Amino acid sequence: MATKSTEPVTILSLRKLSLGTAETQIKEPKTFTVEDAVETVGFGRFHIALFLIMGSTGVFWLTGSLLIIGLASVIIPTIGWRWLVRVASIPGIILIMAFKFIPESARFNVSTGNTPAALATLEHIAKMNRAVMPEGKLVEPILEKRGKFADLLDAKYLRTTLQIWVIWLGISFAYYGVILASAELLERDMVCGSKSDSEVVVTQGDSEEGQSPCHCHMFAPSDYRTMIISTVGEIALNPLNILGINFLGRRLSLSITMGCTALFFLLLNICTSSAGLIGFLFMLRALVAANFNTIYIYTAEVYPTTMRALGMGTSGSLCRIGAMVAPFISQVLMSASVLGALCLFSSVCVICAISAFTLPIETKGRALQQIK
Length: 372
Hints:
Elements: H1 7-26, E1 31-32, H2 34-41, H3 45-78, H4 81-99, H5 106-111, H6 115-128, E2 137-138, H7 149-152, H8 158-188, H9 221-236, H10 238-247, H11 250-267, H12 274-302, H13 305-336, H14 338-357
Parallel strand pairs: 1-2
Helix pairs in contact: 2-6, 3-4, 3-9, 8-12, 8-13, 8-14, 9-12, 10-11, 11-12, 11-14, 12-13, 13-14
Family: Belongs to the major facilitator superfamily.
Organism: Aotus nancymaae
GO molecular function, one term: transmembrane transporter activity
């Protein structure tokens, strides 16, 4: 009697097992991350619109400054400064309305667990760019350890952080100081050989306030012209600033521009012509803008991804402190001593120049750090 063969059964079982494994692999759902979607969607109309809206906060800011100065020369002498304030608020209202068309960051939504909102944002971008979303399900990547404030004061970054804070505070102090000081200097008519009516002491009673000197007077057309020319200086050195950052490095470039800023603050004490005063103010506005550009780039590059937002945020806080202190020097102290106020601005810039030159890390040619 023939024995029953078991080999075909074994082969058949192996085939079923193999087919089952293949079917299991095929049925696995496809997934993609936000980075995959961004790469797939590519650059398009959404990014152009985003560039125009967000770029307007920086470039339209400069244009707005020039426009407001020009309007001030017409509106203030005719219908008053209150109408200038009303007109100046219009660009801000327009920007607020434009921001409503900007969706929330898909990366932020994913990191907070709001995957449906992130998917809706990506689909909106793909629709505007006339692109196709990647197939599969949007998944949240493995989150790395998030940075905390204590990381900024870690031994590895402590010195860098403290020096960056000093530089941010000093740059903001000098930036807003030169803007406010420009108006004070023009009101006082610092041109050689000129005698401004604003230098007359006004006495109205026996009170201390009544005997204080009043330097307030209406700007002449030439004063508005000076303000416009000096404001243009904020973009004048951008090409040289870019070359310096890329060839000299961030530290050396920043220390040079900060040192030059200190020098031009001192030059404002010199008795000069109208053209000379315009030139000094023009260079000061150009240099303080270059300082801001360089420290912004350096701060974003020196910290790893997990700490970058913290580094930029805390630096911005110090920046606001510098902006709050500047009016007390450029207006209050300058009313008592022009030389004292300008020397103080110059001294702060010298401290920032030394701090920039001695920064422990140079980020030129250095890849962005992803982890601490």
